[in-house]
Design a protein that fits this description.
It is a single chain. With 302 residues, the chain is α/β, with parallel strands linked by helices. The chain has 11 helices and 12 strands. Helix 5 links the parallel strand 3 and strand 4. The longest helix is centred in the first third of the chain and has 25 residues. The N and C termini lie far apart (58 Å).
């Protein structure tokens, strides 16, 4: 097994086509197919299923590709550090569910270290993408939550991806809304009181499972529900429609502004916000510093 073969299969997976991958690699399609088959024969698994409709990655292939991406990522880091002849910038990347406090923690890190030495990346994205980004080494740290409802399924996915969940803070559930909402001044709210107002939920795309929802109580039978794809849209709809979303109570007025508030929900439901990382691999110094920034945020007791 060679690095060239590994690069070949990753290119095929990324293009989902032998022909397109061969074109990107500037080699012939028969040569690429032969190289991939030689690798499959050597490691004893089928990475790609071929058919008239194209290629698909097998379950065994997906596992192999995960390790392959890690290997190439590590090789590139070593190449930049030891073989390129010039010092490359260090990289640090974080993925997260739509949490403003996690964004602010990231910004604090960037402000502290600047961007001369480090190349930073942050992805505020869907739950499954957070998991995949950490699994594939696109991000060192992922920020998400677990609760009694999603814990069994979420932990199973993390085990399969060789990831671990590290708890940060336990939270009660809050209704997050515009301060102009008629319910914004209440000390506590029930789900019945919220029924006439639209509930906003982040769309999870192809992985739209109740267990991967960003909001707790994902199986509740909402009378009015609107799926959205980004945080700015949620904030606009809170103002325009008196809508709300369910959150942890860990809010960040510096980024969202002071026009929004979190009202405790009259519910026994709780959630734990934490971070995920590669199992058995310690965090880098930058990763540790980012986690320390996250720990500075506590659930807002209102």
């Amino acid at each position: 097994m060679t690095l060239q073969q590994i690069r070949y299969v990753l290119m095929v997976a990324d293009h989902q086509s032998m022909n397109k991958a061969a074109g990107a690699l500037f080699i012939s399609q028969p040569s690429l197919s032969a190289a991939v088959r030689e690798l499959e024969d050597e490691i004893g698994i089928t990475i790609f299923e071929r058919s008239n409709k194209g290629i698909t990655v097998t379950a065994e292939g997906n596992e192999f590709l995960g390790y392959a991406r890690q290997l190439i990522a590590q090789y590139q880091l070593m190449d930049e550090r030891y073989l390129s002849g010039e010092p490359g910038r260090k990289k640090f990347s974080v993925s997260m569910q739509h949490y403003t406090f996690a964004v602010q923690a990231f910004m604090k890190l960037v402000e502290k270290f600047g961007m001369d030495e480090y190349e930073f990346a942050v992805y505020e994205t869907k739950t499954y993408d957070v998991i995949e980004n950490v699994h594939r080494f696109y991000s060192e740290v992922g920020v998400l939550y677990r609760d009694a409802f999603n814990e069994r399924v979420l932990m199973k996915i993390l085990r399969e991806k060789e990831l671990e969940f590290v708890p940060l803070v336990d939270c009660h559930v809050y209704a997050y809304m515009w301060k102009g909402n008629p319910l914004a001044g209440r000390e506590r709210l029930t789900m019945q009181e919220l029924e006439e107002y639209p509930c906003l939920s982040f769309d999870q795309g192809e992985n739209n499972s109740f267990y991967l929802a960003e909001e707790v109580m994902s199986t509740y039978n909402y009378k009015r529900l609107i799926k959205v794809s980004d945080r700015a849209t949620i904030l606009n709809m809170m103002r325009g429609l008196n809508a709300y979303t369910l959150c942890s109570g860990v809010i960040c007025t510096d980024l969202n502004g002071g026009e929004y508030t979190a009202v405790p929900l009259d519910s026994d439901d709780t959630m734990t916000i934490g971070y995920i990382k590669r199992k058995g691999i310690p965090l880098s110094n930058m990763g540790k510093l980012y986690v320390e920034e996250l720990k500075k945020f506590d659930a807002q007791e209102l």
